[in-house]
Write a structure and sequence with these properties.
By secondary structure, the chain is α+β, with helices and mostly antiparallel strands. Helices cover 17% and strands 38% of the residues. The strands form two sheets. It has a five-stranded mixed β-sheet, with no helix packed on it. It has a four-stranded antiparallel β-sheet with strand order 6-7-8-9. The longest helix is centred in the last third of the chain and has 12 residues. Bound molecules: zinc ion (ZN).
Length: 126
């Protein structure tokens, strides 16, 4: 895709070669719930990938299935409450589901971290 494709559109701010969405919070809620996320261009946002960041947050890249415009959404790093929940579950040998996605999405090991593959966020160290 060449440059200059990404014009300024309502509901989105240009950033690098992906756009940011103004309703990130609402979309994240839908994302955690496994619901379809509506694109500002009509159609839906299809997840292309998750890039975990050094700071503990992650960048999720989505593409609109109608306009092929790419968007990125910052997935915030684990809060103290979320990390404690996972740590407690780990100590009790309990259910290690993602605190945001729920028990159906299990945390998996990536190096010393316990990471949700859907959020790209590390919630605990092992
Ligand atoms: Zn998750």
């Amino acid at each position: 895709m060449g440059s200059g494709v990404f014009g300024r559109r309502p509901g989105a701010r240009a950033l690098g070669n992906a756009l940011q969405l103004d309703n990130e919070k609402q979309l994240l809620k839908q994302y955690y719930a496994g619901q379809q996320m509506e694109s500002p261009n009509g159609g839906f946002l299809i997840r292309l990938g998750i890039r975990p960041q050094d700071a503990g947050n992650a960048i999720a890249i989505f593409e609109c299935n109608v306009s092929w415009i790419r968007y990125e959404i910052t997935i915030p790093k684990g809060t103290r409450t979320e990390r404690k929940k996972v740590k407690d579950a780990l100590a009790e040998d309990g259910d290690l589901g993602c605190p945001r996605h729920g028990p159906s999405v299990r945390l998996s090991r990536a190096g010393r971290n316990l990471v949700c593959r859907e959020c790209g966020v590390a919630y605990a160290k092992v």
